[in-house]
Amino acid sequence: MTSSGSEPTTGAHGILPPAGVEVDPADVPDGHAPAKRRRLVDLTPLRASPAFARLWFGSAISGIGAQMTIVAVGLQLYDMTASTMAVALVGGIALLPMIVAGLWGGMLADAFDRRRVLLVSSTVGWASVLGLVALSTWDAALLAEGERALVWPFYVLTTLNAVASTISGATRSAVTPRILPAHLISRATALNGIAIGIMLTTGPALAGVLVASVGLPITFAIDAVLFTAGFLGILGLPKLPPLGEVAKPGLESLRDGMRFLRHAPNIRMSFAVDIIAMSLGRPFALLPAVGAVVIGGGPVTVGVLTAAAAVGTLLASLFSGPVAHVHRHGVAVARSIMVYGGCSALFGVVLLGMQLGLGGEVGASLEDVSWPALALGALALAGMGASDEISAIFRSTMLLTAAPDDMRGRTQGIFTVVVAGGPRIGDLYAGAAASLVALWCPPLVGGLLIVALIAVVTRAQRTFLAYDARTPTP
């Protein structure tokens, strides 16, 4: 920033800058002078709101267990069926229930105390994890006798868990603007990226090591233990009843939300670009097969590759200090998703090279892994994680600041459906394309399509690229 040398005057934030000088309102908290620009993540939200801090820490710890379970379920089903499509069906079967849960959960968040909605949905999620512990233990006992458990109960429990997580996610996001001032929202979103990075880095890596060392049942059981931290974070929240007129859950409430979105082109576009990215750039359902027959290394490789994406997420969040100074959120989202597509294509190229025999013979044991391919694959997935996190920070901030409070539950419900449902579509696409063509096809072709589609749709919706965070408009 530059200064003309004139004296500032008192204004709405306590100070107004000299004429011709632009200051981000986010940089003028609580009536003080503009804060010094920073490179690292801003921890102010944790200090400003103890309730947010408790929720943040609880979500991060319980999320580690949740990510362990996601990886463990994939390994469990691949071990039982040796089918990538069976792994992909975990997301496909849960898709429709998650859509319903996201829409209904958003209405619940607008109609009831959000703390209570979180407690109930988290209890259901915890019960589903305990069910996975029991089912995996039963399968291990049957395996000792030369038999296997039925596959469909795993789909039932993972779907129930996905439904509970969708409702919790929509409600938790709608809570943030109620426990933090508006100028800290983008920084809180970046902090949430840190939590997600910790979950995605630690959880999959632990899952790979634990499954290989102590087995699947104990891995699921550890998730059940870590889940308790999430409850403590929710219990630390104040009561959060609806503000203003209560919209009773039902079709009319849903119609109100849809009518709002009809006149919110920027929010709609933020949903659309994320669906494109997640539907065409989700290689994670392929990883059990990649670890077994393409790169080698088995469960440990699956854990390393999954964690690599989370490392990218974590690094992007750690160095998210500049987000408070970026105003063109639409441009930032579009560019970061195009980078995401490029990194997906790079991962596909790595798999293509291995399947053409360029990496030599591999096997499921750690001694038979192709280390150069693993390193390149991890680099590509780290790039995907970093670019996705940058996109998520700006998309979430747009939604939380542009939507009014009485619509936040419903818009967050739809947002959660997009965020959670898009990857399920992506898992189905990856499983189908890999089955019909080869493992390299989904990430390579999907990545190139992402770059092309984002360039087309964002140019067709000019208001999205012109979006300015200083005057947030839905």
TrEMBL record:
Coiled coil: none
Main location: membrane
PROSITE patterns to which the protein is assigned, alphabetical: MFS
Topology within the bilayer: Multi-pass membrane protein
InterPro entries: MFS_dom, MFS_trans_sf, TM_effector
Taxonomy, superkingdom: Bacteria
Chain spans, region Disordered: 1-20
TM annotation in the entry: 55-78, 84-105, 117-138, 150-170, 190-212, 218-238, 271-296, 302-325, 337-357, 432-457
Domain annotation Major facilitator superfamily (MFS) profile: ranges: 222-474
SUPFAM superfamilies: MFS general substrate transporter
Name of the protein in its database record: MFS transporter
Organism, scientific name: Agrococcus terreus
